[in-house]
Amino acid sequence: MPPMNTFSQPLSRIFGTFLLLIISSGAHAADPAKTFFGVELGSRFAIPACAANEHSVTQRLCHNTAQTAKTAWGTTDYAVFFPRPDVVPYARGELNVEVLNGVIEAIHVSTWGLQAQQPAMDALQGRYGPPTRSRSEKPKNMRARIPVQYAAWDRADFAVRFTGATTGIDWGRITIATPRHQKLKALPD
């Protein structure tokens, strides 16, 4: 019969290696600065497709396969629906998530335009601090009296852009994007 330590030594090495693998590959903690409504910029796109009629009111993140499109700059744009346990005063509809090679490169949040630009701006400033750049200007051809706010937050590994009103006074947009996406699309300020 072999001595105990000749059998237990390889077993303890295997156990030690297994334990090290578990510890080093621990659960990935999402970066709150890069996460909107549960979707994290720079992570792998693993959001499942919505079930039939689930997309309008969902209890989980899911994407509508009928609203998936290829963009001119090479990303795939997914319409992602998210659970809404609380009312978000500025968010409108679904998220648009752009993916390239399986990685989330941009997240777009539609807003309620001019009526929601101040709550959206307050939320963004609470999250990211004062903007790197900002301006406001009266919209032309929209017959609005309230100026549209524009703001940009530049970070080393991502950027945030806010436009209070886009195609009309009742639509605005928040975009958080990677440097790679910015190069692909050349985001305006």
Walk me through this protein's architecture:
The strands form two sheets. Strands 3-4-5-6-10-9-8-7 form an eight-stranded antiparallel beta sheet. Strands 1-2 form a two-stranded antiparallel sheet. A hairpin with a 4-residue loop joins β8 and β9. With 189 residues, the chain is of the alpha+beta class. It is built from three helices and ten strands.
The average pLDDT is 81
Determine the structural class based on helices, strands and strand pairing.
Answer: alpha+beta
What portion of residues belong to β-strands? 25-35%
The gross shape turns out to be globular
- Taking all Cα atoms into account, the compactness measure Rg is 22 Å
Q: Whole-Å distance between the termini?
A: 76 Å
| SS elements, strand count | 10
Instruction: Return the string of H and E elements.
Output: HEEEEEEHEEEEH
Low-confidence stretches: 11-27
Total count of helical runs of at least 4 residues = 3
What is the gist of this entry?
This protein has 189 residues and is of the alpha+beta class. 21% of the residues lie in helices and 32% in strands.
